Amino acid sequence: MLHIGCHLSAAKGYASVGREALSIGANTFQFFTRNPRGGNAKAVSPEDVAAYLALAKERGIGVILAHAPYTLNGCSADESIRDFAIRTLRDDLERMEHLPGNLYNFHPGSHVGQGIDMGVGLIADMLNAVLREDMRTTVLLETMAGKGSEVGSRFEELRAIIDRVELNAHLGVCLDTCHVSDAGYDIVNDLDGVLTAFDRVIGLNRLKAIHLNDSKNPCGARKDRHEKLGEGTLGFDALMRVVNHPALRDLPFLLETPNELDGYAREIALVKEARQ
Predict the structure, then answer these.
(1) Residue 92 bears catalytic tag
(2) What is the pLDDT of residue 41?
(3) Is 70 annotated in the active site?
């Protein structure tokens, strides 16, 4: 079964965003846990959670993906920023326990001149501080484009983080098609080779979600600028090979393309039509 959705605002509550997803043909969705630039999160409403869970069960909404704010940087050189990241991540994961069995995705962060090894170590320290044995959420490290001092543009960097986390059974990876191409992995001409490398370094069993985005830039540009499906350098056919690949087809696919709701509805319909 194809699990396809997009990024939607959950500001009005989980049940509301669930209904909005269904209205555009989606059966999964991604949402920010709070303002994407940071700040406090809205209080969880038990009534809203109950309404969403009933809706999801009735209408077949699959695993959903929460996204951390962009300001979360667990490997900053600034201790106060690292402290914010730990507090935010801990709070978000506690909130996710109201929606058990789902996914929480975050950008690993930028080492801002400290070096990859230091960045990897600090990110692992953050995860070791917040992960709990009894948690029911899988935390995903996102593959990054490699702009600036980002950590996570190479599979080996994500593996290094995972290896340093004690409770790493709770960790997975979200592969972003724009990011991974911008990082230099040629998913257009060698998707099988990229997935073989991912499996060798990280393990395909850890791949839990796909951000399905075209890119404004060529492979290896390290820019991170998303484009609508079929309107970028990856192209629609290559992206549909991702959607239909035997190792990927059962994962949730989340659109982060530059669209409004009607645009997402069109892209969801196109992906459904191209599903084999």
Answers:
(1) no
(2) 78
(3) yes
Which residue type is seen at 127?
Answer: L
- The DSSP bridge partners found for residue 6 are 255
Q: Is 156 helix (H, G, I), strand (E, B) or coil?
A: helix
Confirm whether 211 is a catalytic residue.
yes
Phi, psi of 105 (to 5 degrees): -110, 140
Residues 6 or more apart whose Cβ sits within 8 Å of residue 126: 74, 75, 82, 85, 86, 89
Answer whether residue 35 shows pLDDT above 80.
no
Q: Rounded distance, CA 164 to CA 168, Å?
A: 8
| Model confidence pLDDT, tens digit, residues 251-265 | 999 999 999 999 999
CA-CA distance, 79 to 84, in Å (whole number)? Answer: 9
Residue among 82, 224, 241, 264 flagged as catalytic: 224
Q: What is the pTM of this model?
A: 0.96
Q: What six digits make up the tokens of 86? A: 């730990």
pLDDT, position 234:
98
Which of 176, 182, 214, 267 is catalytic? The answer is: 176
* 163 annotated active-site: no
Q: Which residues contact 182 (CB under 8 A, 6 or more apart)?
A: 145, 146, 147, 215, 217, 219, 220, 221, 222, 223, 224
Residue 256 annotated among the catalytic residues of the structure? yes
Residue 34 annotated among the catalytic residues of the structure: no
Q: Is 170 a catalytic residue?
A: no
What are 123-177's pLDDT values in tens digits?
A: 999 999 999 999 999 999 999 999 999 999 999 999 999 999 999 999 999 999 9
Q: And the tokens for 167? A: 């409770």
